[in-house]
Amino acid sequence: FTLSIYLSIYLSIYLSIYLSVCLSDSAGQFFSSGHTNNWAVLVCTSRFWFNYRHVANTLSVYRSVKRLGIPDSHIVLMLADDMACNHRNPKPATVFSHKNMELNVYGDDVEVDYRGYEVTVENFLRVLTGRLPPSTPRSKRLLSDDRSNILIYLTGHGGNGFLKFQDSEEISNVELADAFEQMWQKRRYNELLFIIDTCQGASMYERFYSPNLMALASSQVGEDSLSHQPDLAIGVHLMDRYTFYLLEFLEDIHPASKANMNDLFKVCPKSQCVSTPGHRTDLFLRDPGSVLITDFFGSVRKVEITTEAIDLTDPIKEVEERPANGDVHKEMHSYVDQLPVSEIIHQKPKQKDWHPPDGFILGLWTLILLVFFQTYGVKHLRHIF
Amino acid sequence: MSKYAAAQKQAEPAVLQPTPQPKDDFQEELVVRPLHSGDIYASFQFRTLWETDFMRGNKVSHYRLFPKSLGQVISKFSVRELHISFTQGYWRTMQWGQPYLPSPPGAELWVWFQDSVTDVDATWKELTNVLSGIFCASLNFIDSTNTVQPSASFKPLGIGNVTDHRFLRYATLPREIVCTENLTPWKKLLPCGSKAGLAVLLKSEKLFHSSFHSQAVHIRPVCQDWQCKTTSWELRQTLNVVFDLHNSGQGKREWSLFKMFSRTLTEACPLASSSKIYIDITDNPEQFELSPATSLLSQAMVLGDRRTFSVYDLTQQDTFGSVRSLNLLIRWKSTEGDMLRPLLHAERYVAGYGLQTGEIHTLMYNHHPYRSFPVLLLDSVPWYLRLYIHTLTVTSKGKDNKPSYIHYQPSKDRVRPHLLEMLVQLPPNSVTEVTVQFERALLKWTEYTPDPNHGFYVGSSVISSLVPSTVAMDTNSTRERPLFSSFFPCKEESSYFVRVYTEPLLVNLPTPDFSMPYNVICLTCTVVAVGYGSLYNLLTRSFQIEEPSPGLAKRIANVIRKMRGVPPL
């Protein structure tokens, strides 16, 4: 009898331990990636109407990233020129990614944070490192922390070791690597995925040296990335090949998808892309096969369970808004006269603030005084005055 | 609300009464005016009135209809009035008449600050940055080089007694592009968003395929009632659009809501106290016909003329008819008839040749047959066009016309622009021409934009005037009036206030060859390398005599001779 009791107790203890291990295992799996929020920085660096395809590239990645859950407040979108409302666009307020105008990647709900002349190397590096002037609004900042996974997508014209911004300046791969190192030292990212679609794109990730970086490029050093197809109605090429196939791949991904990075490396083989896409994973600590696409492109919110209880029993007292009974006799307000002609004609000139004399005036007077004293001498001053 | 109060009273008598929330009110309206050229002009206005005080110590924390982002901007920066507009296209006054709310091409921002602000310039800089984040526009390019402080124009449109122009700032960005990314946050400020009411018509694909598109936000304090003892804050969001007959209309003089906006209306915004559509039928029935017919008519004195409007009230269910959707149809019957010629009209252009000098000409037309009226001209020219004010001439009908008030603030290189304000009396039925010569400056090579050969923009001139009207204007500001006629306050019956914007100018500055630094570096490095290299070699190279290595045959012969013990060759 006692044996059966001991057996049942032993069994129950064993079962509870087993169950808790199972739960913590699945809970452990749930938390395996280590990030709690997602950010995306999408940059198009080219200006002028014939670079329509770069804006379409960036907007299609923006669209996929929004669709998979990253909100506008966590996306910093930088477009160097306006293609949708450009006067050469035969269909205003649209940017198409496929000929026959099938997919309008611009859409009706788009928020561009940096546009036009604001897309410069300095602003891009400031966004990455967080060194922005204090009055910069929140939508223009990358407010990531050490548990953020960041997706950075760059597109434009590039060469061996540089990327051209707006036809007037370049960013080099050394600068980019240093910016990522600054981000690492300031603990501004947990893991970072860097995708670049330019000619000789692989040269841009050659110099990375910070941990937890994974990079993809559309072409190797010495190769050009090619554009996909022109549209005869719009008159320009609509998208680049690599991003076109990347968009096709991402359209199949949904927020609960289990596709991993190895599938992303297979996007756009040489037969479709003509250039050879490259990738770099040696700085990344996890195995790429265990990294989900939605870890970077989607925004899966993790929940942390706490066992503490919060006491909500006290009623919240409303602050009484004291009505303005004090001023019984309020003054009568009136609208201002929009063009008071007589008042304007007889307007007194504004009192200018007095500024101390400028350096030039001070120097001139010093010279005059020096010459004066030199000519007449100090001892003759009594006779002059 | 009352059940909750009763429950609270029963539960704990010590809890305070929930205080009544400040009254707020939301109205929306759409005015459609068919134009003589076959185009159609649609003007949306959304107005939120809120009786609250942003300025006193207690922070406002409960927002209902008024958007929180703008409320926080008002209280943080002590704003008394804020007017911001984004426009794509230029308003053609001679073809389309006067707009209900004028705006210049690009972005325009003018703000009156409260008296309590100590450093207006720093507050202005922060305000432009915050607004650039709210509206997704590059308003952070507004700095001291394009901000001016007008001395007589831009008097406050809301209530107030003190008009110290130290608290006024005005800036334009003529280059600013307007696209869907500006419309999206603008729509999000509306109480119903773009889900219900008139805002469902605001689809960007149709709105930007137009000749003129302008969206604006106006915040000002207004009178609550006739005695004007209490004030409330008014937020007006306006959107003006002109659809072209040939682009959007496919050449047919027939417009409907579906053709203009690709949507029809199904309901009014539930949060709106009034939701109306006004169609300007003053020229009806000879000109065009309107369907579905409505019995509601309204007359309003707007822009110096008495206009008749057909009114559709969207809060009444029977407006939508049996199909539960409203699609207005306006069909032209004939194309004759003249337009009422606008009394005030202005143009501006650059004359001259070459990249050294030029001349700015501003023409102001007074089309009134016998009345003359004064206009206030405000010109803000960037510092890189150096104006020669001694060449300023104002002529009307060939004779010199001396302005009764001139205010000129010269520019300072890279610090502030030129500001020229003049009060000119325009004689009846005449053209007044203002000319001033300028010289173009050479900028530093880092100050050029990435596309300098496009040119540099000069903002529009602003002409403010009290134009005599043909009918008596309504001076009672608190009577229930449609929104489009109650924007500019009216002090006297015989004239109405109008603001006309000229075209922005595009001038080419002398542009250097940007590849020259690269060329210079290459040439210098080559010269230095060749010159220094040769000199270094000459100085440090030492010569040694060396036997040339013998050929193959000789080497074999030498090996054989060595084996034989004979001296080599």
Structure in words:
- The complex is a heterodimer of chains A (385) and B (569).
- With 385 residues, chain A is of the alpha/beta class.
- Chain A has helices at 2-30, 52-67, 121-129, 173-185, 241-251, 261-265, 270-273, 294-297, 341-345, 359-376, 381-384, and strands at residues 37-44, 75-79, 114-115, 148-155, 157-159, 162-165, 169-172, 191-197, 213-217, 278-280.
- Chain A has 11 helices and 10 strands.
- In chain A, the strands form 2 sheets. Chain A has a 7-stranded mixed β-sheet. A 3-stranded antiparallel β-sheet of chain A has the order 5-6-7.
- Chain A is extended.
- The model of chain A is unreliable at 22-28 (pLDDT under 50).
- In chain B, the strands form 5 sheets. An 11-stranded mixed β-sheet of chain B has the order 5-6-4-3-7-8-2-1-10-13-12, covered by helices on one side. In chain B, strands 15-16-22-18-19 form a 5-stranded antiparallel β-sheet, with no helix packed on it. A 5-stranded antiparallel β-sheet of chain B has the order 20-21-17-24-25, with no helix packed on it.
- At the A-B interface, strand 3 and helix 9 of A face helix 4, helix 5, helix 6 and strand 24 of B.
- Chain A: InterPro entries: GPI_transamidase, Peptidase_C13.
- Chain A: Heteropentamer. Part of the GPI-anchor transamidase complex, consisting of PIGK, PIGT, PIGS, PIGU and GAA1. Interacts with GPAA1. Interacts with PIGT; this interaction, via a disulfide link, stabilizes the expression of GAA1 and PIGK and links them to PIGS.
